[in-house]
Amino acid sequence: MSFETISIIGLGYIGLPTAAVFASKGKKVVGVDINARAVETINRGEIHIIEPDLDRVVHDAVARGDLRATTKPEAAEAFLIAVPTPFRDEHQPDLRFVKAAAESIAPVLKKGDLVILESTSPVGSTEQMAEWLAAARPDLRFPQQSEAPDIFIAYCPERVLPGQVMVELINNDRVIGGMSAACSARASELYRIFLKGECVETNARTAEMCKLTENSFRDVNIAFANELSLICADQGINVWELIALANRHPRVNILQPGPGVGGHCIAVDPWFIVAQNPELARLIRTAREVNDAKPQWVLDQVKKALADCLVQTGKRASELTIACFGLAFKPNIDDLRESPAMGVAQLIAEWHSGATWVVEPNITQIPSALAEHATLVACEEALNQADLLVMLVDHHAFRAIDAAQVTQSWIVDTKGVWR
Ligand SMILES: NC(=O)C1=CN([C@@H]2O[C@H](COP(=O)(O)OP(=O)(O)OC[C@H]3O[C@@H](n4cnc5c(N)ncnc54)[C@H](O)[C@@H]3O)[C@@H](O)[C@H]2O)C=CC1
Ligand SMILES: CC(=O)N[C@@H]1[C@@H](OP(=O)(O)OP(=O)(O)OC[C@H]2O[C@@H](n3ccc(=O)[nH]c3=O)[C@H](O)[C@@H]2O)O[C@H](C(=O)O)[C@@H](O)[C@@H]1O
To answer: What pLDDT, in 10s, does the model give residues 228-251?
Structure first.
C-alpha cells in the first residue's frame, strides 16, 4: 500500500525539514503542531526556525500545495512523531509530549496506518507509545497484541547535524527499529521515498539505544578533551598542540575542548541511559558531569586572569572591561539555547563589578538573560578597548581576526583560537 498522505507531528528542527523533504518528493504532507503561530508561518510558506536551505524547500512545497500545516491531526497513511523529549528534575526523561502526540493521532488512526516515533527517547518508549495508542483505540490491533496488527509501529531516530540538516536528512543511513519485522519493512518503505542513505533494520529497543549511544559516544569523547584541557592548564601544556600531536597517531582521534557541551541533544540524551541504568552507566554519567562542570572552570580561569590584571595594572576591578567572544552553542550558528558560552558569559557578568561585553556576530540584540549585566558590542570595539578577552566560540569571524589586532595580555581562550 502506498503512502498517499504523510502526517508529521511536531514541526520543529526535525519535523519541518522532514515534512518538507517528503513534500519535495510529491507526497501530500500534513504537518501538525500545537504552536498556532508556527502553523500560520508555515502556511504562509515561511519558516520559524533557522536552517540553511529549509526556507526554499518549505516555500516551494507550500506553494505547490504539497505541504500544509494544522493544529489538529487528520487522517493519513503514515504518522511521524517528532516532538520534544526533554528531561525533568533529576535528569529523568519526560515523555509527556510523546504521550500527548500519540493520544492526539489515536482518533484518526485506521487499519493499515504506520506510526513512527522519531523523537530521541529512552529504551522502551516505543512499546510505551504503542500501549498509549492501544488504550485509546481498543478497536484496533497493535503490534504488541498481534502478529498481524492493524497498525504498524517503529522507532526511527534522527541523526542530522543542525546546520546541515537538508543534506544529512537525505544522505545519512537510517536505523529502522520496527516493533516487528513487518513494521520495519513498512517504515523502510516510507523513508525510501526520499532517502539516498541505507535503511538498516533492527528492533525498536536497539534503535532507541542506538540513538542514545551515538550522542553519548560524542559526549564521552568531548569530556575526554575537556578533562585534558584541565590537566594541561595545570601542567602548563598547550592542550591544542597536545591534541594535534596525539591525533598524528593513526588510531587516535581526540575531539576539541571548549567551554562545555551545549545544544538540546548531546547534553540531554546521555542522561536517558543514566536514568535507566544508574549503577552501570558510570562513564556516561561522569562524562556529563565533566562537561557540565566546564563553564564554572572557565569562570575560575577568568577570575585568576583578572586578579593578575589587577596586580599588573594597579586598577580596580570596576575599572576593567571583560569581553566575551561568542554566545552560540557551537560555531557559525545563531542558536543560543543550552549554550555553555551563554552560561559562562552570564557567570562572568553576574560576578564582575566592571563592564562585561559580549561579541556575537550572529545576533543583533543582547539576549534578555544577559541584558541587565552585559552589553553587546562590535568585535573591533572589544579588541580595541577591553582589558581581558574570553574566547568562547570559534566562529569563522573570530578565527579570521588578525593576530596583530589582539594586543591584550590577559586572554582566556577556551577554543584555542588565540594560541
Ligand atoms: N534538533 C536536532 O538537531 C535533533 C533533534 N532530535 C530529537 O527530535 C525531537 C524533536 O526535536 P526538535 O525538532 O529539535 O524540537 P523542536 O522543539 O524544534 O520541535 C518540536 C515541535 O513539536 C511541537 N509539539 C510539542 N508537542 C506537540 C504535540 N503534542 N503535537 C504536535 N506538536 C507538538 C512543538 O510545538 C515544536 O514545534 C527531540 O526528541 C530531539 O531530541 C534528534 C536529532 C537531532
Ligand atoms: C553524535 C553526533 O554527532 N550527534 C549530533 C549532535 O548535534 P549537535 O549539533 O548537538 O552536536 P555537536 O556539533 O557535537 O555540538 C554539541 C556540543 O558539543 C560541543 N563540541 C563539539 C565537538 C567538539 O569537538 N567539542 C565540543 O566542545 C559543541 O560546541 C556543542 O556545544 O546531536 C544531534 C541530535 O541528536 O540532536 C545529532 O543528530 C547530531 O548528529
So the answer is: 999 999 999 999 999 999 999 999
CA end-to-end distance (rounded Å), the chain:
60
Which is the closest atom of ligand 1 to the Cα of 71? 31
Task: Please tell me the number of Cα atoms within 13 Å of 283 on its side-chain side.
Answer: 9
CA–CA separation, 314 and 310 (whole Å) = 5
Q: Report d(CA 60, CA 136) in Å as an integer.
A: 36
Q: Which CATH code, of 1.20.120.610, 3.40.109.10, 2.40.30.10, 3.40.50.720, is assigned to 5-203?
A: 3.40.50.720
CB 356 near ligand 1, within 6 Å:
no
Active site residues: 211, 265
| CATH entry 3.40.50.720 includes domain 237-413 | yes
C-alpha cell at 106: 489515536
| Averaged pLDDT score across all residues of the chain | 97
309 in ligand 1 pocket by Cβ < 6 Å? no
